[in-house]
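CORE FACILITY INTAKE
Project code: CF-77B
Contact: R.S. (postdoc)
Sample description: multi-component assembly, two entities in total
Requested service: structural model of the whole complex
Turnaround: standard
Below are the sequence entries exactly as provided by the requester. Do not edit them.
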Amino acid sequence: MRRRSLAGPLVLILIGVWFLMSTLRPELPLLDLAARFWPFVLIGWGTLRLLEILVWAVRDQTVPRCGVSGGEWTLVVFLCLIGSGLAWAHLDHPWSRFVTGADRVEIFGRSFDYSIPEQKVAAGKAVRVLVENLHGTVRVTGADVQEVRVGGRKAIRALQDKDAGEADRQTPVEAAVSGDGVVVRTNEDRLTGPQRITTAVEVTVPRGFSVQVRGRNNDSIEVSGVNGSVEVGADDASVRLENIGGNVRLGELRKSDLIRAANVKGTVEIQGGHGRDIELDTIAGEVTIDGSYSGDLEMKNLAKPLHMQGPNADLRVEKVPGEIHMDLGKFEGTNLVGPIRLASSRARDVEIEKFTQSLEVTLDRGDIALRPLDAPLSKIQAHTRNGQVEITLPAKATFELRAATSHGDANNEFGDGLKTVTDERAHGGGSITGSVGQGPSIVVETDRGSVTVRRDSGAPLAAHNEKPAPEHLHPEIEKH
Amino acid sequence: MRTSSGDLIRAVRGPILLIVLGLLFVAEYFGSQVPFYKTWPVLLIVYGVLKLAEHLAPDNRTPAGGSL
């Protein structure tokens, strides 16, 4: 009778245990262990087989013609291929010359965590801090201290812990006085290997300091509680600023997912970038935004003029005691002080209520809904090429109105005193004109769409905008 | 029935090659870190030595037509 070897079942058990451990204890570095120790499976397998054959021979039992069968050799070849592949990916050995290090680290590496030893630099005559961190996060906090404190953590992605340790040694976080400032550097540019470093650097500075942060690809840059100015420059970073006493300048921030500034006593200047969301809350100084932002823009409580300029829109508001919310398709403003000027070349619906002083809105496409605050009114001009226009006027206001549409209905819901003229021809337009007392000029026009003039009943603007059935919105389009 | 020395050497040839193969990979990953692409000829040498031993071993099998 042919004797069966124990090697096959034992190898199966070993593989089963390995997979079981990888599911039950995923935190164990099982891939690393397999990558390093797989050749011992070959040695154990061969030794077991050898002992079996010798025992059978000593006992005068039949020994197999081949100690390792053809099928087993096939399995050995597969084992060698898989094991070598794992080792190639996980271990630093001569085969690594065939691939670029950075890609291997990115795909197969692990993250190793190091803490940055806390450093204290006496502020002396310094009045500002410069933080240079190419990758990772920066948090600068103003506090009642007399020195600059630096700490944080460093995450190093590498294939092995010794590589990560070497990268940590090459890139010490340094803080030193230079001129009238303290310079904090993470020194990632000194790294010679393929490891990837992200540093979360935390800096505490005296409250009176100005802050300058330079990064490249940073997850987040946060500054809070400083009375000086703040300047941030990075290729890509989210920026959060809070309780800033001086001016804020994001002049070299090329890309950002979020810019948030709250409670800034100086001006805010955001220039030249593109990104997604902007949130500004309680800004005492002038706000200038020049760039392309595709997400949600929210601005509240701006005490000085706001000027926003982008590829598709130009907005100027004298003050924003209330709030503005805009995205690519909508502009909503409540409680604004003019002169307000909004020009948009892309499709955008505009809703502005409780505004004072003059207003000028020019749209290419989109609906306009306006409700000025109670009398006295100022000059209002609104024009859209394609969309409906609604204006809700205070009951006691005085004005000289011209509301006109070239193709659409003219709806006078204001009441007596205004004259409605309707063109009875197909696709004709209409107009509502008239004067109530001696007041400023109000001109609202659309080339295609209905125009509606309402008397303010106190209901929120949104209630007026419950849209009728689509055929009433753009009758000329439906008829075609 | 007694196993001849040649049969025994032939039977252990596979396990010994397996062990040597494992040792060569261990040599790559540990200690001297000599890469496998430099040491693989050792397998040929071991195989050759075992084949040689198999030929040189005295044949004490039962003659053909025996109890096999």
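Facility notes:
- The longest strand of chain A covers residues 210-226.
- The interface with chain B takes residues 36, 38-50, 53-54, 56-57, 60, 62-69, 72-73, 76, 80, 83-84, 87, 91, 93-95 of chain A (CB under 8 Å).
Invoice: internal transfer
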